[in-house]
Amino acid sequence: MKKKKSQMEILGLAIVVVIVLMATLFVVRFVVLRSPIDYRKGFVSSELASNMLNTLLKTSAQDCKQLTLSELIQDCAQETGLECDNGQDSCKFVSSTANWIFGTTLDKWNYKYEFLAYRENDKPFIKLGNQCQSEKRSKLYPIPIRAATVYVKLDICT
After folding, report:
1. Is the pTM of this model over 0.85?
2. Domain 39-157 belongs to what topology?
């Protein structure tokens, strides 16, 4: 009788060990080996959009009367007819300068983007890049002009 009781205790102990091993495997599989959530990517895209737009708007144009791109966007929106040293009007100058800046940075870093300057949301007077098809991080800057506001927006596609 004692022999059967010992065998039953060992069998019970073996079952407990198997259950503990199975629980450990599940913990390892679903908790430890789970891929980490990348919160950093969204933050980097958001900060990149903000910093790029802020820097772009404060950049001085040597070829256009030392005006900042923000001032040139104001002129473009008001259509005052400012002509830069290279013969371009303010709208074309802003477009070509922004295109060059984004081409040497965002394009080189393989970021998809859309840059817009508009008074009315559905009618941008400057548009660069392509509309984001999936998620995006945006930065919007208002620029005051006479009797209205111009909005400059940069979307970084994630």
Report:
1. no
2. Ribosomal protein S3 C-terminal domain (3.30.1140)
